[in-house]
Amino acid sequence: MNFKNGWARLIERFVLQSEDDSPDRYRVLRRNLVMLMILITIIPLTIMAVIYQHEYQSSIKKEIINPLQTLANKSKHSFELFLEERLSVVRFIASSYSYEELSDQKTLSRIFKVLMEEYCCLVDLGLINDKGIQLSYAGPYEFLGKDYSKQSWFQEVVVKGDYISDVFMGYRQFPHVAIAVLRRTIEGSYLILRATIDTRKFDNIIASMGLDLESDAFLINREGILQTPSRFYGEILDHYPMSFPRGNYGPIVIEEVDPQKRDMLIAYAPFIRSDYILVLVKPRSAVLKSWYTLRTRMLFIFAISVVIILLVVLKLTDTVTKRVKEADEKRELAYREVHHAHKLSSIGRLAAGVAHEINNPMAIINEKAGLMKDLVGYDKQFGNKEKFLGLIQSILQSVERCKEITHRLLGFARRMEVQHVELDLNELVQETLGFLEKEALYRNIDLRLHMADDLPRISCDRGQLQQVFLNILTNALAAVKDGDHITITSWEENSDTVAVAVEDSGIGMPEETLRNIFEPFFTTKKGSGTGLGLAITYGIVKKMGGNIKAESKEGEGTTFTVYLPKEAKIAPGE
């Protein structure tokens, strides 16, 4: 409700602007309405689209990141299970066999053969004493008697009890991983059982992840050295080219730009019992491909919506502006008519007073002249009787003429008896034109008549109608130059109305003058006009139930059109 009231107040503020800025009022109104409607439609739509995009992007990232974390975590568990299984086997052998049995080369070879049959990827198996000397060995190399006491892994096994090495290439230059387990003897010494496995199983586990050609998965150690080959970042023992989180943590996913300037989603899953980190890499564009497709469609729908809103806003504002303009014009016209009627009423009261003041002395003159006529008529001895009677008759005729003039002046001031007679409008116009023919002939003005032959007769007051056309024709003669022309046309407008147009080829009028020509005392004849002719004409035509219109262009001339009803709208005696 408050919004509607605010909207109404906004429109009212624009509509009720002062007349000083009226030429720009509707343009400003239309501009402001367009801006306001765009603000209240497009801004909420934009905010909704941005929020929806943000929320959907966050949601889809979660839906993508969670599977990446899950896949990395499951694959990490597969690696850990493989390594823990081998470590458990070595630990079981170390605890199940005595020192003497494991030191025996044949026994160790037999155990190694059984392990090769049951477990894949085993390369060799060896027993090392507490001095770091390899006492027995089963495998493809000549490692019997080799001293490991200076190796870092040897010291680590002594401290931790077991050990899983990083990937190394070995004598035959293919990747291996060493597993070692410590066993303490009753005598207080200890022995270390060490096995070496190749990394083929690593490759199998990575292959089982089912990655597409755009993705990559590999192992690195805590120093960033590749433990398995990578599609994107190098071979085994190459350095991983990007930074990565260090320490013990669960699987995490990071957005990063790789050395090839590609946006990547990278999942890191560190192992618990070893120094390995599983790395899973997917291009961001491939992961968010569905999001990009949806975003493109959203942008297209958003653009179409904005275009439709703009078209509707422009059409709606045009309609609103036109209706406001029409309402404003009707209001102004009504105001002008009321103002005009008020002026005519004031002039009417003035005319009534003037007519009353003139009628009184005219009545005295009429009575005195009648008395003189009677006295002259009864005195048979009066000299120059005929001459005096003629002069007296002239006085009475002038008084009668004044009476008719004041009668019409009173007719402008108040409702008087209207004498309706049936008349031929063409004949009345030509009769009125007869009063002006001498002036037109003297000034060489061409009077062109285009009168309808079958024009219906109308019922109207002859004298008042004659005054209407006399005023219009007089103004037309004043507007044209010598040698110009005036065209008078009559026709039947419709079944109830006839019309007469008086068109001159004069100088025309500007729009401002045209709006004020029917107002009392408004005149363009400086020093010679009273400004009452067209005002009186307007009042007479309106009183008859007709209408009068004026059209004009500067330099082209003016046309006055009088529309009259075939039957007067007012009754005699009104």
What does this structure look like?
This protein has 574 residues and is α+β, with helices and mostly antiparallel strands. It has two domains: 1-287, 2-Layer Sandwich (Beta-Lactamase); 416-574, Histidine kinase-like ATPase, C-terminal domain (Heat Shock Protein 90, 2-Layer Sandwich), CATH 3.30.565. The protein has 14 helices and 16 strands. Strands 2-1-5-4-3 form a five-stranded antiparallel β-sheet, with helices on both faces. Strands 11-13-14-16-15 form a five-stranded mixed β-sheet, with helices on one face. Strands 6-9-8-7 form a four-stranded antiparallel β-sheet. It is rod-shaped and about 195 Å long.
Question: What's the layout of helices and strands?
Answer:
Elements: H1 2-15, H2 22-96, H3 99-103, H4 105-118, E1 122-129, E2 134-138, H5 152-160, E3 162-164, E4 176-184, E5 190-198, H6 200-207, E6 216-221, E7 252-257, E8 263-270, E9 276-283, H7 284-287, H8 289-378, H9 385-413, E10 420-423, H10 425-433, H11 437-442, E11 446-450, E12 458-461, H12 462-479, E13 485-492, E14 497-504, H13 511-514, H14 533-543, E15 547-553, E16 557-565
Parallel strand pairs: 11-13
Antiparallel strand pairs: 1-2, 1-5, 3-4, 4-5, 6-9, 7-8, 8-9, 10-12, 13-14, 14-16, 15-16
